[in-house]
Design brief:
The protein has helices at about 10-40, 45-70, 80-95, 105-135, 140-175, 180-205, 220-225, 230-260, 265-270, 275-305, 310-325, 335-370, 375-405, 415-425, 425-440, 445-465. The chain has one domain (about 10-465): Growth Hormone, Chain: A (Up-down Bundle). By secondary structure, it is mainly alpha-helical.
Length: about 475
């Protein structure tokens, strides 16, 4: 099993699933906060609290979904069926999330809580099984990194697509209908694309690795084993810090360009050149996604030379240093802003294939250590921590905006602008530094994983005799 090759078509098919998920993820990251404050009409602090509170339930969702996936038995496997079953509800709820009902402020906040909670439940129901597929399609470490690289390339491809078309579609529909309806119609288009991508992943992938034949379902034992999985806990800390790093930078980017960069214009020219201002932010986001993809492509050759752990650690330390430099760039130096965005995004891109490949390694490590395999639980708990980092980053962004006195759709005071700049520099820089420090304690080297896989293959061969 470790030496078997999988087809290019299957790797591409697996990639389409994260293209779909990442389109929604980037919409949430780039546009949802500013939609809530500037279009939907709720205060930044209320939106930030909503992000955090709704995740209390969502935190439990991921391991529950992983447990359900581990116990699913169908002719399509454990995890693939959910790509078929959840794709349509996922898209429909996405449209509802960007729907603005005719309610007072309290009603809107309640609607935001309900629609966002449903969206996260749907995201969990389709993304946890999707992520878990990586642990059952192949046991080959290099092929896993290859799968993860395809996943990340397609993820950033989906992100590029949505960054390129989301705001232009909102502007297009906004010329015909109210801006709130324009967001809704845009999500209809994005949802249809996502459904198609998920169905392609379902059709083109296969599950090959199964638990040991004599393994009985024992949730208590699976949870106890996860608690003993020290490498997984190291990745947990690194993953949360990495997502805070990314979500704070991404979440504040639109505010940075709308309220800081555009202050170069007078009130009259701000209207006349609003499209140019939009072009600055769009190019910034597109550049970030493009250099993320380059980082993903380089993950496999660089990690083959340095090892996964060192590659991850050095990339995060580099992102931390570059992020701190961002604070000292003035708004009239767009070239340097774009250069730093490209370099930081490259560092961020290179670690994500490694992170998911390493999660798969911790599932193998757990089976090697305990004799039991709980792929869905490992990946769902990993997904839970990823979303926790994303949530903390989003909440921190909105809370800091409120602390620094942000008011929607008005000129910001100097203190608010300083806070926005901090959220583009120091805050993500510290998170990246913490992520890199966690990796010092990760002990599953590439050589160690080769020994583990060889031993697991020998056990599987004995089971088949």
């Amino acid at each position: 099993m470790t030496i078997s090759k999988v087809s290019l078509k299957e790797k591409i098919g697996y990639g389409f699933g994260d293209a779909a998920s990442s389109m929604f993820w980037k919409i949430f990251t780039f546009y949802l906060a500013i939609f809530y404050t500037d279009v939907f009409g709720i205060p930044a602090a209320a939106a930030g609290t909503m992000f955090l509170v709704t995740r209390i339930w969502d935190t439990a969702n991921d391991p529950i979904m992983g447990i359900i996936g581990d116990r699913t038995r169908t002719r399509w496997g454990k995890f693939r069926p959910y790509l078929l079953w959840v794709a349509f509800p996922f898209a429909i709820i996405g449209v509802l999330l960007f729907t603005t009902p005719d309610l007072d402020l309290t009603g809107k906040i309640v609607y935001a809580y309900i629609s966002y909670t449903l969206m996260m439940m749907a995201y969990t129901a389709i993304n946890v099984p999707y992520a878990s597929l990586l642990g059952v399609m192949t046991a080959n470490g290099n092929e896993r990194t290859s799968f993860a690289s395809y996943r990340m390339i397609f993820a950033f491809g989906g992100s590029l697509l949505v960054v390129a078309i989301f705001q232009p579609m909102v502007d297009f529909f906004g010329g015909i209908v109210p801006v709130s309806t324009a967001y809704q119609l845009t999500m209809v288009v994005i949802g249809v694309i996502a459904i198609g991508f998920f169905l392609m992943t379902f059709s083109w992938t296969r599950e090959r690795i199964t638990p040991p034949k004599d393994q009985q379902n024992n949730l208590k034992e699976d949870l106890r084993n996860l608690g003993k999985n020290i490498p997984w806990f190291v990745l947990l800390g690194a993953g949360v810090a990495t997502l805070i790093f990314n979500s704070v930078r991404d979440g504040v980017a639109m505010y940075y360009f709308k309220y800081y960069i555009s202050d170069d214009f007078t009130r009259e020219s701000a209207v006349a050149f609003s499209k140019m201002t939009f072009a600055y932010s769009t190019f910034y986001l597109l550049l970030g996604q493009a250099t993320n993809m380059i980082g993903v492509i380089m993950a496999k050759p660089v990690s083959a030379f340095l090892g996964k752990r060192k590659t991850f650690m050095y990339a995060m330390f580099g992102a931390a240093i570059l992020s701190i430099f961002f604070n000292f760039v003035t708004r009239d130096n767009l070239y340097l802003i774009y250069i730093l965005q490209a370099l930081i995004s490259f560092c961020a891109g290179i670690i994500f294939p490694l992170l998911w490949s390493m999660y798969a390694d911790t599932a193998d490590y757990s089976q090697w250590q305990t004799g039991r395999r709980a792929t869905g639980l490992v990946f769902s708990a990993s997904s839970m921590t990823q979303k926790l980092g994303w949530t903390l980053g989003g909440s921190i962004t909105l809370w800091l905006l409120a602390i620094y006195g942000f008011q929607a759709n008005v000129e910001q005071n100097p203190e608010t602008i300083k806070g926005i700049k901090y959220m583009m520099s120091y805050v993500p820089g510290i998170a990246a530094l913490i992520s890199g420090l966690f990796m010092i304690f990760y002990k599953l080297s590439d050589k160690k994983m080769e020994e583990i896989i060889t031993d697991l293959d020998a056990r599987r061969a004995n089971e088949e005799k």
